[in-house]
Structure formats: structure tokens, C-alpha cells
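Appendix B. Chain record.
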Amino acid sequence: MEDEGYHPILGDASENDIRFFEHRTRGTTKESRKAVAEIVDALHKVKKRVSVLTGVFVGASNNESMHNKEVIEITDEQMVNNRWLMKTVNVTSFEKYLPFMRKDNHRIVYG
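C-alpha cells predicted for this chain:
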């Protein structure tokens, strides 16, 4: 993912936008570093595990929700290599990612 430079965690791209990545978001002052640590601590205190079963579709606004994925158990190694994962990422320029896209469909990344 590209370097986004300095930006606020909340409300930069839209009123409800959240731009926070654990282990990547860093404060630039003593106070902001403390705030980032407090956000991480709070998120870990309230997180809930959700098991997504076969055939279940989960959708959320990528920039307006806090989310992650955690693999707990792999029961079929072959299926892990063949599963579909749809992920969205906001970038300022799409051009540098074109070499990683399918030639016949620029909405699909080779994985």
C-alpha cells in the first residue's frame, strides 16, 4: 500500500472516514502517539469474533468501519489456496497498480 503521508485518523476523506491501521498508524507528537496507543487498546477491548460460514456474504463500508480478518483454523489447505477474497483499498493513483491487474479486467488483482 502506498504511503499516504500525514493525515487525520477521522474525517479526512469524508465526514465518517476512518484511516487507521494497527502497526502502521503513528502519531507525530507525544500526545498523538499516546492517542494511537489508547485507540489500539480500546479496539482490542471491544473486538468480537464473528465466524463467517460457507455461503455467507459480509459487506461493510471499508472506510467507515473498523474491521480485520483473523484465520483461526485451516481445515483444507487446498481450499485456502483457491479461495476468493474481495478487498478494497483506496489509493491516490491507480496507474502504478495496473501491472498487477488482469489484462482483461482491471478490477481483479492477480493474487
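Further analysis of this model is presented in Appendix C.
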